[in-house]
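Lab manual, section 2.4: Encoding a predicted structure.

Procedure: take the sequence of the chain (632 residues), apply the prediction step described in section 2.3, and record the output as C-alpha cells. A sample record is shown.
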Amino acid sequence: MKVTNIEKLKEKILKSRDKTKTWVTVCGGTGCHAYGCLKVVRAFQEEIKRMDLADSVGVRTTGCHGFCERGPLVVIQPEGIFYQRVGVEDVPDIISETVVNKKIVERLLYQDPQTRQTIIHEHDVPFYSKQKRIIFGNNGLIDPTDIRDYIAVDGYQALSKVLFEMTAEEVIEEIKKSGLRGRGGAGFLTGLKWEICRRVSSPIKYLICNADEGDPGAYMDRSLLEGNPHSVIEGMIIGAYAIGATEGFIYVRMEYPLAVKNITLAIEQAREFGFLGKSILGSEFSFDLHVFKGAGAFVSGEETSLMASIEGQRAFPRQKPPFPAQKGLWGKPTNINNVETWANVPLIIKKGADWYSQIGTRTSKGTKIFSLVGKINNTGLVEVPMGITLREIIYEIGGGIKDNKKFKAVQTGGPSGGCIPAEMLDLPIDFDTLTKAGSMMGSGGMIVMDEDTCMVDVARYFLQFTQEESCGKCVPCRLGTRQLYEILTRITKGEGEEEDIKRLEELAKTVKAGSLCGLGQTAPNPVLTTLKYFRHEYEAHILRKECPALFCKDLIIYYIEPERCVGCLLCLKNCPVGAISGERKKVHVIHQELCVKCGACYEVCPPKVKAVSKYTGRKKQTILKKEKKAKE
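Recorded output:
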C-alpha cells in the first residue's frame, strides 16, 4: 500500500472507526509485562467476547504509560478512568461495573500517598498532572504495532510537510530556531549538528539513532521504541532529508527484545506504506532504515564506538576530530542522535519552532524524559519541561520519599552523573545548571536517595560500574577508574587514610582531563560531587571509622537491646547463618563473630519492639569491648 496523500489516509482511517466505541487500554511496556499484562489483555478479550460486547468495546495494548511501579495499568477511554495494579481476577468487575454500568471499581483506584485521596481519572493523578507529555503522551493512546494508530494521531504529517513544502535548508533552520539540543547526554545543538553534516560534500551519508541505553535504571529510549516507534522513524526520515542521507541505522541493544520487535515491525510497516524506500510519498527523496542489534557494552553508547560496532569492529572509541559529521560510518559523513531527540523532530516541524521554543528555559528548550527511580513513592518515566525544579519532580510528581524518610541526594545523568544534595532541591533542571552543579543531564537517569544512603558507597558503586564497562583503550580510564574504585572500597571498609581524599580529587581530575571518550571524561563525577557536597561522610569513614548512614557492613554491627527484646524468635528464625541464640521469651544475643550483617534480624524485628539496633563508630566499639569482657 503506497501512500501519496497522508491527510486523506488519516481521514479514511478515522472514518472507518466507531467514535462511540469504548476502549480498554492496557499498558504493554516491559515493566507491565513483568507484572503479567498480557494475561490481563487476554482476560479482557475473553470477557468481552463472553458478554457479547465486541461491537461496542475494544482492547488496545499500548506502550508504557510511565507509572511503572503501579502496573499493570488500565485506562478506560474516552473517559480516562485510571486503574492500577490490575489482575486477571479484576477484569470481570471492570467490564461489568465500569464499561457496562458506568460505575467505579474503588479498590483499583490510585490513592495519593500524601493526601490519601483516591483519584478516578488519569489526568488528575499527580504523577501525570504535573508532567508535560508532548513526546510520551501518545504512548498510552496507540497500539505501537499498528501504523494506522500513529497516522490517526497526525503521524507522518510532519514528513509530508517537509517533503512538499520545505527545502532541506529550511528544515535545518527550523530545528536550529527551536533550540533543540541532543538528549543523549552532551546537549549539542541538533540543528547545528545537522548543518555541519549537510555542508560536507559526499554522495553517501548515513544517519544513526543511538538506542544503546546502558545507564543502570534508565529505560526512556526503550519505552519510546516500544510504545511509539513511528515517531522515531518519522524524525529520522526528516533528518535524512535535511542532511542528504539515503541510509540509516537504529542501534538498539539486544537486551531490549520488545523494543527490537516493535521497531523492526514499524520499519516493515513504514516500507509497506511508502514512508521508507524509493520515492517516499511520491517525492524524489529516497531513504531506508535498518535495525542493528548491539551486544550491550556500555561504551557502545559513545558515538565513535557505536559506529565501530556497526562496522563489525570492536567497540573502541577514537579521537575526535574528525567528527562523525565529517568522517563517520565507513568513513562517510554521519549524523547521530538519540531516540528522544529524533522523537522531538516531527513535533517541531508540525507545530513550529516558535511553539517548541516557548517550552523550557532560555538555553534548554522543550521537555525531557527522566527515569525516576530509587527511594521514592512514585517510580517510573516522567516527561517534564526544562527548568522544572528537583523539588517539583521528587515531591509533586514522585510523591515524596518512601516511608517518610529524609531526602538526602539525587543522582542525575546515569553512572557518570553527579550527586546533588538536599540543599539544592530548588535547582532548576536544564543542561547548563546541572553542569555547573557538577552533574549532567545525561540520557535522563534520576536516582533518588534517602537518609539511609551512604554517599561514599554510592560513589564506589558507580565507579565499579564504569570501571567494569571501560573498554580499556586509554590509560587514564583503564587504570584511573580502577584506582578510584580501589580507594573508595578501602574507605568503605574502614581502611581509609587521611591522604585518600586528596588522592581521590587529584586522580579524578586526571581521569577527567586525560580520557579519550565521554565514558572516562565523566566517570569521576560521582566522586567529585560526593566529595564536594558530602565530604563529612568521607571524613567520618576515614577519621572515626564510622558510616553515618549505617550502611557499610565493615563499619557497623547489629545489636539486640536486652531491655527491649521480648524473645519472639523472629530474628533467630530468619538469621541465614545461625548467628543468633536465645529461647522463647528470653533475651536473644547476636554473636558478632558469626554475623554477616545481612540485616535480616533488623528487618523482621517488630516495629513496636525495635529490639535490634545498628551501631557504628564509638558506640560499636563500646559494645564490642563490653561483649569481649563478658566472654572473658
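Check your result against the sample. The chain has a mean pLDDT of 94.
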